[in-house]
Amino acid sequence: MQMIRQSVSRNSIVLAIFAVITTGLVVLTANLTREPIARAVEETLKKSLFDVMPRERLDNDLLNDQLMLDADKLLGTRTAKAAYLARLQGQPAGAILQVVAPEGYGGSINLLVGVDAEGVITGVRVIPPHFETPGLGDAIEVQKSDWIRDFDGKSLQNTPEPQWRVKKDGGEFDAFTGATITPRAVVDAVYKALQYFDAHKQVILNGNTSPLTPAHEETAHVGH
Amino acid sequence: MSDIDYGKITRDGLWKNNPALVQVLGMCPLLAVSGSVVNAMALGAATIGVLALSNIAVSLIRNSTTDAVRLPIFVMIIAAFTTCIEFLMNAFTHELYLILGIFIPLITTNCIVLGRAESFASKHSLPAAALDGFMMGAGFTAVLVALGAIRELIGTGGIFANMHLLFGDIALNWHLQLIPEYKGFLVAILPPGAFLVLGLLMALKNIIDAQQAAKAAARKQKVAAGSRRVRTTGAIS
After folding, report:
1. Which domain does B149 fall in, by range?
2. Is B76 among the domain residues?
3. Which residue of chain A is at minimal alpha-carbon distance from B58?
4. For chain B, is the Cβ count within 10 Å smaller at the N or the C terminus?
């Protein structure tokens, strides 16, 4: 009995010591890398934001001019996500929405959709990671093909509803050989994002979040 | 155990007991991340790091643990190093970190790491354990990169795409499109391609081994024949 007690307490002490050491190591690394990680995340986000909204169209600090949009069916989001506001000389120039296409072949596809103040698309990009089939569905990536640029300049006004489909379904967007589901999902998501923007245009462009997300009011930085 | 054969440790890790081709361990990341050279190199480097560090740590503490808590401690050490490397990759190779995603934390469960800690590092001194960890990792990485290169070449007709994610801006134009106007060969990029190529690599290794064994056997026979003749003359003892 004595021996068992001794070995149990010895083992737990050894285990505890190693738990403290290893946890300490992880905490140390986490602290040392916190700033570089935050910088890398911001850098990546900034790069993709400027991909969907040309630099010359805005002069504000996109990352600090955001408002939270509640989860919405038209956006495909399940949680509140930030939208970024573009301003040129203080005037609202457009917005960048975070959109989810839930019906991708390999699950949800995260998209950034840039829209100018008139509701015309300035750019669409896929946010990695996505799980579309390599070589087929991954042509939605701008690195793989120019397909995603077909959205540039489209709006609800210049492209009527029946055209917002892939060619196979009677619309005007190309589908990829062997992959229809992926482009169909993306076209649908972008179309719905435009509808959302159209419905909430005033609210988004004025950076006034209160009718949408009273809970997140404090996270919105409204026009300085 | 006192005199360690460093040459043997190196040969074991890289060829004779190669973790991927012979022990067939760590298949999940091996098959999933070997679609291109850059992915393979990044995951391979992370695996080498974890393997070497965990082998060193396990060897250092091998006399201060008890049998009952040995395994939990090993797992704790491995998980800690993996998490540290994950943080570092997130900070300094961010885009690559996003691509490799779940496969970095999964290094913790890569059987090679715990396997080497338990079967080698816990029984050997520091330099031997460190070398074993490094060589096993290098052997794994070599197969990973070979798989990545073959799959990328067959699948896309080019090689070394996106190397700047790992090596920075100097690697921006390393991509070689060896076959222009290549239509792509999808199977090579998809998981079945990984199985096929890995099978071929294993077969290749077996062929080389068999040839070497045959050569060695032939050499031995010659010596044996010679020595008998020598004995018949009775000149040397």
Report:
1. 13-210
2. yes
3. A18
4. C
